Amino acid sequence: MRHTSHYVIATAIIVAAAPAIAQTSVTDEIAKYRQLLADGNPAELWEMRGEELWKKKDGPQKASLEQCDLGKGPGVLKGAYVELPRYFKDVNKVMDLEQRLLHCRMTLQGLTREQGTKTPFASAGNPSDIEALVSYITAESKGMKMAVTASHPQEKTAYEIGKKIFFHRGGAHDFACATCHSTDGQRIRLQELPNILTKSNAQAAYTTWPAYRVSQGEVRTMQHRLNDCFRQQRFPEPLYGSDAITAVTMFLAKNAEGGVYNAPALKR
Amino acid sequence: MAGDTDYGKAALDMIKSDFKSKGPATVEGVLKQDEAQRLCSEYPTERPKEVAEKIEAEQLKLVKYPDGAKYLGKWQEGEKIAQNGRGMQSSDPIGGTNGGNCYACHQMTKEEISFGNIGPSLYHYGKLRGQSEEILKYTWAKIYNSQAFTACSNMPRFGHKGILNEKQIQDVMALLLDPQSPVNK
């Protein structure tokens, strides 16, 4: 079933992109194509697998994740994602979804950190439970407004550190996140780049992750998106579930406040 | 602002602890900022005139002009460099050949429609400017160290940071300036 849908999608992309000459029409065609597929996003398969994983007794402690507290109480998924990252009293720190999920897998299911971070991103023949779980959890916030408060002092600190990292220029190419994401209407090749400093752009960008990426045939999480940004920025590799990623995510999520959450989405 | 500085230090500490060197992309490489990188991080969007002038003057001094004033190589090679986006990423091999990836940000030829807009269009660059010594020197210096003329430019300092070698810059120069180059058709 997966293979069939990949084939259809790949064909549709080629058909949509090939006749387009001017850049605007390429962009328009991609938007049209996205709309066509909006009712049949393959991410639904990840959501279903995620739900099974959430409820399955697993790990050394043979426990499910159903008692995982993502900030709205044990097991409450509805609306949890639009309030993340947030401060968690039990660990006295700010966590994003992926960090918190790892925490639950360690504390409830008894996984070691190494086991919990072994396959954050799927590769050929090696699926990731995290991508499925994140798909399921985030889908439970569909249609809700982004409502990260950053009211706790530690949340404010995470936001400010995330902002500093966003503007930190370094490495071989002198790039910062801001190089590509602080001006309206910028494009790399034909790829439009959201200006994270404006509300509407930040909302449009943030509320559509995680996303099923047609080019990769996988649902990719926010951390995967950030990893890829850092790679292209010529930065070293961020550690999975690290505070640095949470801080940058906090900066992005807060900037996207008020946007209607609509993911897992579909991207090229 | 004291608070600001503290967040800055916390951010550096976090980069140090939460990133892992891989391939040519090292933690030290992003932590150890030079003065231009530090100032451009401190003033990301706007900066006082004197800060900008200081950066530009310092960076201009760092430009190395080519041996024997040989500015132009082969535009055909330059086109390959302009198309090549590889190099210096954590996924790249150490010591591999880097591209210039010019099309990521610039329009250059009529044929290539997939180009970005972070930098200005360079189509007809040589046709409009000719090949006076002044233009050759300016264009070289701009590729070698973009911040010699624009503090905190988004463009990498290709020569200064060792992304492109002298021969590669000569080839990119030819792409921009050779009358036979598709840039000038």
Automatic annotation (TrEMBL), chain A:
The active site is at 229 (cysteine persulfide intermediate). The gene is soxA. This is SoxAX cytochrome complex subunit A. Its cofactor is heme. GO terms for biological process: sulfur oxidation. It is found in: Periplasm. It catalyses: L-cysteinyl-[SoxY protein] + thiosulfate + 2 Fe(III)-[cytochrome c] = S-sulfosulfanyl-L-cysteinyl-[SoxY protein] + 2 Fe(II)-[cytochrome c] + 2 H(+); S-sulfanyl-L-cysteinyl-[SoxY protein] + thiosulfate + 2 Fe(III)-[cytochrome c] = S-(2-sulfodisulfanyl)-L-cysteinyl-[SoxY protein] + 2 Fe(II)-[cytochrome c] + 2 H(+). Residues 49-146 form the Cytochrome c domain. The keyword RNA-binding does not apply. One of its GO terms (cellular component) is cytochrome complex. It comes from Noviherbaspirillum saxi. Belongs to the SoxA family. Its EC number is 2.8.5.2.
